[in-house]
Structure formats: C-alpha cells, structure tokens
Amino acid sequence: MNILIFIVLKSVCSRAMASKTPVGFIGLGNMGNPMAKNLVKHGYPVIAYDVFPEACKEFQDLGAQVTDSPADVAERADRIITMLPSSPNTIDVYTGANGILKKVKKGSLLIDSSTIDPAVSKELAKAVEKMGAVFMDAPVSGGIGAARAGNLTFMVGGVEQEFDAAKELLTCMGSNVIYCGEVGTGQAAKICNNMLLAISMIGTAEAMNLGIRLGLDPKLLAKILNMSSGRCWSSDTYNPVPGVMEGVPSANNYQGGFGATLMAKDLGLAQISATNTKTPVPLGSQAHQIYRMMCAKGYALKDFSAVFQFLREEETL
Amino acid sequence: MNILIFIVLKSVCSRAMASKTPVGFIGLGNMGNPMAKNLVKHGYPVIAYDVFPEACKEFQDLGAQVTDSPADVAERADRIITMLPSSPNTIDVYTGANGILKKVKKGSLLIDSSTIDPAVSKELAKAVEKMGAVFMDAPVSGGIGAARAGNLTFMVGGVEQEFDAAKELLTCMGSNVIYCGEVGTGQAAKICNNMLLAISMIGTAEAMNLGIRLGLDPKLLAKILNMSSGRCWSSDTYNPVPGVMEGVPSANNYQGGFGATLMAKDLGLAQISATNTKTPVPLGSQAHQIYRMMCAKGYALKDFSAVFQFLREEETL
Amino acid sequence: MNILIFIVLKSVCSRAMASKTPVGFIGLGNMGNPMAKNLVKHGYPVIAYDVFPEACKEFQDLGAQVTDSPADVAERADRIITMLPSSPNTIDVYTGANGILKKVKKGSLLIDSSTIDPAVSKELAKAVEKMGAVFMDAPVSGGIGAARAGNLTFMVGGVEQEFDAAKELLTCMGSNVIYCGEVGTGQAAKICNNMLLAISMIGTAEAMNLGIRLGLDPKLLAKILNMSSGRCWSSDTYNPVPGVMEGVPSANNYQGGFGATLMAKDLGLAQISATNTKTPVPLGSQAHQIYRMMCAKGYALKDFSAVFQFLREEETL
Amino acid sequence: MNILIFIVLKSVCSRAMASKTPVGFIGLGNMGNPMAKNLVKHGYPVIAYDVFPEACKEFQDLGAQVTDSPADVAERADRIITMLPSSPNTIDVYTGANGILKKVKKGSLLIDSSTIDPAVSKELAKAVEKMGAVFMDAPVSGGIGAARAGNLTFMVGGVEQEFDAAKELLTCMGSNVIYCGEVGTGQAAKICNNMLLAISMIGTAEAMNLGIRLGLDPKLLAKILNMSSGRCWSSDTYNPVPGVMEGVPSANNYQGGFGATLMAKDLGLAQISATNTKTPVPLGSQAHQIYRMMCAKGYALKDFSAVFQFLREEETL
C-alpha cells in the first residue's frame, strides 16, 4: 500500500469512526486481541472486557472503553463479539451472574467466534432469542498470524437475514466470511474441517514414515503423493516431515503453528457432537486419542504436525 | 484422434514393429489385457501367457504368440512384463516349476507391475539377479479406464541404469513413469499412497456425515472443506457423498471405480510392510479393518468411496 | 428359604410396614417397574410418578400413591429414588418447571439410579445441596432379570455418612450395595466397568473368530482361553460364539441380554468423561465406534455379544 | 522337594537315561536353555545346537553332545525340539543349507516350540512330510520362570496319532500339554490368546486410568471390576496399576514379566494371520499399534502392563 492510499484510507476511517456505533468485544486473548485491534483500525469504537484486567489495558490506550463485566458491555453496545477458550467460559459470559443476558438490549446482535460445541451454540441462541436479541456462531479458521493480518476465515451460523449485519463487522477481521446455515452450523463446519485435517495429517505422517522405512526419499515420496490420489493439504501445503518443505512448522522443530493441545480440544468437540448425533467417526475418534496420547507424552505445545515425530522414533530393540 | 493421424501412426507402428524385439506379457486379466494391447499398438511383438487359456485367445487374433508357461515366455523374449493379482501368484510365475526363472536368458529385463509386498519384490529381485537378469517392480496407479487409455502411472523400483530401458516399454502403457529408487520402492510408493488415500477417504466420509447430521448442506460443506485445511483428493475430486459431484462412483450408486475388496488388499500389504518394519500406522491399520468389515457386510464389490454409505445409515432406535 | 422362616419374615415385614415412611419413586420403565415393586414388597409405601401415566396404573393397584409431577413426589416423600433413561431426562426431573427441587424438603435423601454422565451427577448434587437436601448417585449393574429378583448391584457415590440410609432402601432391590466415594463415583465405577466389558467382549469376539478361521474348534479355543491369560467374563461367562455355552444370548440368536444400543449409550458416557478429563482411551473409543456402526447396521436391539456376528460374516468375494 | 525324594527321583532318572534315545534341541536362548535342561533332568540324552556356540557350552558340561548344525542334530536324533525367535530363523533351521531337512531320518518327530506365523508352520509341515517325517507346532505359554520350573503350557498342533509321542517329551518341560488340532492350530491358539490378552490389558489400563481421574480409589475400582462383568486376568491377576497388587510387574516398576516388544511381536503375528484369512480384528489391530508406539517411545523392555504408565501421564497444559 503506498502512502497516498494510506492517507486516503485513514481519512476514510476517521470519517467513518464518527458515524459508527460502538461494538462490544469480550475475550482479548491471543486471538481476540488482534481481532479487536482490527475493529479499532476500521474505525469502530470498541467496548472491551476480559476476565484478566491487564488484557484490557492496551485497549484503553487505543481509546477503547473498558468495562467491568459482560453485562456492562451489553448495556453500552448492541453489537458484541465474543472470543473465548471453551464452552463453559462462553456459557458463563452469556448466562452467568454478570453475563451479557443480564442487560442485553432488544435487537442486539451477539456474534460468538469461540470454537465450542454446536449444541451449546444452539442453547445460547435460544436463550438470546428469548431476550429479543440475535445470536450467531462464527468460529474462525486461521491462527494468530491470520488474526493480525485480518485475513481469518469466518464460518457463520444463524438467521440468514442477519448475515449481512454480521458480515459488516467480520469483514474487518477476516478475508473470508461464509454463511453456513442455521445456528450451530458455523461450529459444525469448523469441527468437521478440523477433524478431517487431523485425520489426514496423521495419515500423511504414517504414509511418509512407512515410505521412508521402506527406502523412499521423503521429498520424492511427497511429490508422488501430491500428484496422486493421496494428495491432501497436509501433504502438499503443510508437510510434517522435516526437510520436505520450507516455511512450515516441521522445518522449525514444530514450533509455532497449531498446537497439539488445541487440536485435541477440537477433536474432543467433534467427538461430543458425534456422540450426541450417534454418528460413527472411527478415524476421527482414533485421531482424538492419538493427540490425547501426544499431549500426555510431552507434545502438547508442539505444532500438530509433530505427530510425525511422535510416530517416527526408532524402537530401542 | 482423427483418421489421418491414426493412419500415419499405424504406419509408424508397422515400421517400428519390424525392428522391435518381442516383449513377453504374463497375466492378461482386467488390467493386463488393455496394457498388453497398448504394447501391440505400439508395434511390439507380444509373447503372451495367462493361466486361463481363453484370456490369450484375443491376443492370438492380434498376432501375438501364445505360449504354454512363463518358462516358455522367458525362452522367447528377453523383456517380460508380469501383471498378477497377488504375491503368491507372482512368486509362482517367477520361481514355480514352469516359472520364468527356469529359462530366463542372461541380461533379460523382467518388469513386475503386480501390486505385491515390497519384501517379495526384493526376494524375487535377488533370485533374478542370481540368473544374471534384471528385475524391476513397477506397480501402477489408475484403473481399467487408464489402462485402456494408456495413461497409467508407473512407480518404478530397481537399478537406476536400467530405468530407461524399462521406461521405453512402460511409456507405451502409461503417461507417467516415475523412478522411485532401489527394488521394492515402486511397491512402497504405491502402498503408501493407497494407505493415505484410504485414510483420507474414510475421514472425508466421516466429516461429511457428521456435518450433514449437524445440519450442514453437503455441497456447501464440501466447498468449505475444499477451500480449507481439510481439502484432499477424496473431498475435491472423488467426493463420496451422492449429489455433491458428478461423474464419480458416488453419483452412480458406487458402481465402477476401485472396489472395497481391492482397497482391503492394498491395506493388507501396507499392514504387512508396517509390521515387518515395525512402523506404527494406527490410522492405516484402522482403515484396513474398516474395509475388512465392509467386505464382510456386503460392500466388497462397491467402490471404496461407499464407506460413506457404510457409516451413514440411521440407527433403528 | 423354608416356609417357617418365610412366615416369620412376612410378619416382620408387615410390622415394619406400619412404621415405614413413604419412599418416592420416579421413572417406572423396564428397570424402575420391578425395582419399585421390590420396595412395595419390603413394606415401603411408594409415592410414584412416571411421565407416561399408564406406567403408574399398576402401582395404583398395588396401593401406591400416584402423583402428577416430580415436585408432587418431593412434597410427599423425603426419600426419593429416580431411575431415568438419560442425562437430559434426569436434569429435567430434578431442575425442571415441575421438578423435584421445586418442593424438596430439607434433609431429604435423593438417590439417582439412572446411568448418566458423572459430571451431571455432580451438578445435580450441588443444586440439591443448596436446597438443604442430600443427593447420591447409585447406578445399577444387572438387567431386568436381576431387577425382578432383587439382586442388582448398586454402585453408590455421595457423602459417606448418608450411605447407611441409602443402603437401607437399596438393599430391598439389590444384593450388592457398594460405596464408591464422593458424588459421581458410582457413575464412574459403572462406566469404567462397562467400557472394559465392551472392550473385552469385542476382543473375545475377534479372538474366537480369528481362531475359528485358523482351524480351531470354538469350544476348545474357549477352554484354552479360559485357562490362560486371555480369560475374561466375556469368554468364560457370556461367550459370544453360538454353541460354546448354554443359557447366554449367543445361544438364543442374541435375543435378550444387554442391547447394543444400551452399550453404545454407556460407551458414549465413558467417551464424554474421558474427553472432559483428557484421559486417553484408545480402545474404549474404538469400542464405542464399533457399537455405533453395529447400531447403524441393524444390530441395535440385539445383545451386545452379537459383535461376534457383526465381525464374522464371510466376504462375498 | 525334600532330599530323600530328590535322591529317589535322581536314581529313577539315571535308570531311565540308560534306556532313553537321544533328543535334539535347537535354540538354547532364554527359553530354550531351561527347557533343554529339564529334558536332561528327565534323563534324556540331548543333542544340542545353537547359532551362538557359547550357548552350547553349558550343555557340554551337562553331558550333552554339541553339534555344528541343525543337519548334524537331525543325523543323530530322531526326535528334535526347536525353540527359535522368529519365522525366518525357524525357516532357516529347517530348510536352510545346513538345515534339519538336509539329513532328517524317515519317521523322525520334529516339534517346533517357536512362536511363529501358523501359515509358516503349515509350510514347514508339508516340507517335513515330503521327507517322510512328522512336524508338530507346540508354542508355549508362560515365561522364563515357568520354563525353569517345568510348568509351561504347550499348545500342540499336528496329526493326532503323534500327539502321545510329543506329549512324552513336552511333559518334561510343561505341566499342561493341550492338543489343539491340525498343524498350525497350536500357533493359532497362542496368538488368539495373546491378542485377547493385549486387548484386555490395554482395556484394564484405560478403565483404571479413567476411574482414577474420575475420583475412584484404584484398589476399590479393581475390586468392583473383579466382581463385575469387567473382570479379566489383567484386572484380577496381573493388575497394571502400581499399588493394587503385589508380586506383579506393576509393583516393581514394570520390570520382569513379558516385554512390550514381545507382545508387539505376537500381535504382529496375529495381524498377519488376520490379514491372510481376511478376518476383521479392529481392537487387535489397534492393540498392535499401541504396543508399536510404546516401543517407539522407550517402553520396549518394560513389561506389557506398562501400557498403564504410557497412557497415564498428565498433560503439561
């Protein structure tokens, strides 16, 4: 972006800011922090809350209003985005003693970008609807880098008429905003994708490991898979074998990326959804267990592609 | 191909035929038949053998010499291609009472395109080498259609200096001939690819099934997976859910394609190789069991993408 | 028991009846019905409720008071037993609009014999405690036959001081009443047992099936396993192979017994508990998926030992 | 045994020795050594061979004849026992350049106590039969301790008329000699038992681990399982949780016992047999993979009950 355009944009933003109504943001952690900053950059006055007060301080300096509880946010803003680590946290922020629902205004738009059980999203939607407000689930794909760059993907579930209103805000934080269907389908899309991702990552690790032990060169094997029916994102874009690709966690001792513990969490959600809907997911279930075992064996903080390393080590006999 | 080019080609072939030395072909089944025909089309005099005499008849009409045993083929041709259904058949054709090795000439080139245990390929290579001849494994990827069209992929293992000689013949039958390394690595590449294929196919079936039960539209879910990290050949090229894609077995009641029983066979080979090399393949192993259960439940002859159907059916309660 | 003792006992019961305070019983289904009858037989005046009024009628004839809601039961009895099919039903009976907690008296003893998620038991215990009452979980082992005969096993979780009071009632319905620890541990013991049961049943089915295909006589194989380290309840008491034992479901086309769909439910609870506590359960998880697939393939109502039949059928090729 | 009886026994043995014909013994490793010694103790002149000459030395001191090859053994003894670590070793000892079959006498009885693929046993039996001799497979259950004490269990496959002749020798080394059926069924019985053992051991470890995390006391949980349908040899005789039982490997940091690497080997044989007979073994297959992963993570030499430790460790997050 050259400077001229930047100035023009900035003035556009400043002008826009004057007319924009505030947006609440609850949950300013690793992901929520850069997401909320992108809202500020796009000129939205932000009403912030986080359970850890220090997480809010930075936003105070950016001109955001900091509040004492989710209820306070709901009192001051009629559009709120929540970004929380788990189902229980999310339930608490919405329905707790100082939760959003205590003071939510009629007609408010509440967008939850946390990754949680879709059944919980549906429960929350019902509770929100009773208060005359609207709930949408909008979990994200893409990590901290994408959150900073503003090119997350949002998978959105909820009443279709409200999608445009949600999209207006989400576009400030993501480059891809997909409408998935009724409430809960945003979560559903995300956990289905991540379950398939985990399965094909472990499958890629197994196939590469087996091929190497049978005498194949890893780069050559990756090339063959990628031009054949074994091709997948884990083999052609994020190969788990050190030395095959550059710029991926396997090239950097499995640092950065998407931690095994986060993958285990998403697979746990997939498992719960599958159990509730009586859907057989034999490999998804096994993938969950493998990431669980990895977490128990010291791989919790490594990128999820470290499953190659977990499976590879030589027997001592 | 228009007629003119066809005539020119034909005359080229005729000319070539005059100078070409014969090629033996053993195993004229579903795959071997069209492969051998492509050799004939390219002007190679073919010396044919199959355990079922009727399989040879067609080749007699095409001008091929038909023989009584693999040994007879070895007596009359110093380049031989074998295409057989399993390890024991292949061992028998090479080392049996009337096997190739009984009369193989020094310097002969023996190319095995069967899909078998790479450890067996290595054993055969040793036995062939003792007779002063050369063995290469060259299993194929692609089904009967690709065999007819002459655009199979060959994955070739063996001494590198002999690769060009092998390639000359294999190019008549395939559009892609890849050198993989020492003897056995052709098999290794194929079974690693097919193991990963089975895993990602089952994973795709699970993810699509779970998503549908959670309220997602199948076409939309496929689109989301294909633009995300869940993308794989099974989701974007061969989707197992009826109605998502056209021209794939799932659009045709899972007829045609690559049968579940063949996939179970290849996964059995992967399992044996993994056991022999002490390589953990938890999902590959589970995929093997799932195709085994499918075969036991009436899916043996359906395309392997029918795993979606196997997992989908509703509980009766 | 000879007649004299019986008469003496009967008169003891009659005397006792006069002085016994009423016991509430909520959930008069397949299991609850014979359990409540055993309370009546032991002289307890029963205050009954079931969501299906016809389920209560029989109890009216037996002299029980029938009420209109769980709240009504709580108004009239300070000891209540609940026996319900799932977590949501149980939550509703306790915390719903006409639930027990609406009218529970201080000091009441509430015993839940449903098999549910132990985390739900803990939540209910907290809610009950807030009302000044006591909650214990006491799921049962043993089927309808044991319920009728009054020899169920109860696994009881809750405050230890209250165990004797609970045991007084449970002894009328079961021959074995085991104190397991704090609230939720009754459920925990049950789901751990049933998870191990499912695993060893499937394992027995696999081992028997493999042995038979390798040429062993099933009775001989069962005998060898039962005198060796493969011995388990599924091999020596409930063998899944027809013809090996008499008086078990495998001798009766897998009718009766413990249905596959019930096993799938318990394995789902084990899975949820394992996910919540981040415990790896690779075989428990796979057992869950196998019962899920069985239910999807028409085995929902057969005894869970029918997994032998599910795995056994011959391939068609 | 008091001294008097010992002297009497010794004199019986000495007398018997005079009339007993020699027995060959090939493979004097951890298991073969004490087994062969028990033959000596029972008065059989032993003709010994091992690929490591030092393994024979001890037997020379005991009065055994030591030979240079399996062929030499076959020349001097018409009853031979083989105890070798794997299928390839066994094939070599029978059919190699200096193998038994080079000099086996007509009517000889060859008993193989190695644990190998039953398909290999059948192949060897055919080759032996061609030479006019008899082959039986007789793998053992019980470890080094049982081998020393002479109370191994032998599972014997082969022609029934020869069973008594085999039993005469095997009774010197084992307290339990079971006839299983045709050749290969001894191996089949052993691998089926060990597959079920591995499954129920992992299941026990999972159930105990889950129960402990849900708040149950390990000893109490073991007691409950052992009086319920979860009962198995792994829970009641060889419990994998430290502190639950005494005198088992879990009480001794998983030292001694049956190593994970040996279990992985037997599960590999079960897997190969299942693949060859197209038998679905979903849990057996997963058990194999779990022991494979354990071996890759440093548990190769620990007792196989250490799977509890493998699964138990806490996540670092």
Automatic annotation (TrEMBL), chains A, B, C, D:
Start and end residues of each 6-phosphogluconate dehydrogenase NADP-binding domain: 23-181
Gene Ontology molecular-function annotations: 3-hydroxyisobutyrate dehydrogenase activity; NAD binding; NADP binding
Keyword Translocase set for record: no
Pfam families, alphabetized: NAD_binding_11, NAD_binding_2
Leader sequence segment: 1-18
Main location, first listed in the record: mitochondrion
Metabolic or biological pathway, per its Swiss-Prot or TrEMBL entry: Amino-acid degradation; L-valine degradation
PROSITE patterns, per database record: 3_HYDROXYISOBUT_DH
Source organism, top-level taxon: Eukaryota
Location in the cell: Mitochondrion
Keyword NAD listed: yes
GO biological process entries: L-valine catabolic process
EC code: 1.1.1.31
Residues noted as binding NAD(+) in the record, renumbered to the chain: 21-49, 84-85, 89, 115, 265
Domain 3-hydroxyisobutyrate dehydrogenase-like NAD-binding residues, every copy: 184-310
Keyword line: Branched-chain amino acid catabolism, Mitochondrion, NAD, Oxidoreductase, Signal, Transit peptide
Active site per database record: 190
InterPro entries noted in UniProt: 3-OH-isobutyrate_DH-rel_CS, 6-PGluconate_DH-like_C_sf, 6PGD_dom2, 6PGDH_NADP-bd, HIBADH, HIBADH-like_NADP-bd, HIBADH-related, NAD(P)-bd_dom_sf
Catalytic activity: 3-hydroxy-2-methylpropanoate + NAD(+) = 2-methyl-3-oxopropanoate + NADH + H(+)
Cellular component, GO, one term: mitochondrion
Gene3D superfamilies to which the protein is assigned, alphabetical: N-(1-d-carboxylethyl)-l-norvaline Dehydrogenase, domain 2, NAD(P)-binding Rossmann-like Domain
Family per similarity comment: Belongs to the HIBADH-related family. 3-hydroxyisobutyrate dehydrogenase subfamily.
Name recorded for this polypeptide: 3-hydroxyisobutyrate dehydrogenase
